[in-house]
Amino acid sequence: MLPHNQSATGSVYPPAAVSSSTYDMDVFADDEELFIIQTANTWLQQANLRPVPKMLFGKFWYEGELCILFADSNLGKSILAVQIANAISTGTTIHPFTCEAKAQPVLYCDFELSEKQFEARYSVDYHDHYQFSNNFYRAELNPDSDMPPGFKDFDEYLSACLERSIVQTGTKVVVIDNLTYLRGENEKAKDALPLMKHMKALKNRYGLSILALAHTPKRDLTLEITRNDLQGSKMLMNFCDSAFTIGESVNSNSTRYLKQIKQRNTNQVYDSNNVCVCEINKPFNFLQYEFTGHGVEADHLRKIKRTANSEYTEQVTAMHAEGKSLREIGAQLGISFQKADRIIKAANLASIIVNPS
To answer: What is the extent of the structural domain holding 69?
Structure first.
């Protein structure tokens, strides 16, 4: 057994102060220590021997990251995810989002589309199919499969099958479309935590780069997208390495914008003042995002409509401050006293929000 001031890697650290522990320290085997303790310099020396992570999709996703791509339904998450997977499988770049990694196998777990729906997107009227690289592996659920004994539930069985597929294909890049199918409930932290721990464990065990797609609940389209818009946001955001989102533009049905939400291998380049604007097009047999430029997120958001009440707010609140009754205010302005009451309550609420105690 190693002395108490020496780690399993040989790094020596100061002896612990003598104290009466709550636990029996002799129960820990040398190879079962939860913490690996080394000097900071040793960590840096080890890290220097590892390759620098390469970009898989520009500054949005790097090698070795568990990245989450989230957006509302029907905004084209799957379209972009297939496009990214296709680029990695061929070692090509989706302009201007550089792919530095060499061509390699990619496992795309498709829990959204049927094979016929997939064909419709990557063909011309179900003919003239797009030719994917043989590095591109697509998986979908087998409807005839029965869960064998030994698994406590379907989630556990699905996770085991995913791991087996990773080993079978020898892939280091996995796209999961989408997270809901790995765990039925992700909205609450207690449900999202086991899922993210499992994903991190897979990533570390096999040296994976994982892109996981996730939904947002219904959101206010007048507001910028933040990390709080991700379903089960707190736990998912805490455990992922990076995250980006697709925003819907009010300017056109086919216009989308991409925005960084979390990053560790780079600084934030694509924030609300520099979103990547794209158009969804199908020039021939491949449905895809086409980059058109950079923009400001506010230009793509729904504008707040001025309500009829807002034109009376200043007058009503001023008269109320003078001590006039609701009926007096209504009679003078030609509105009902109920409307005057609603305007005052709305003004008071806005004041509380802007100037909280």
So the answer is: 55-300
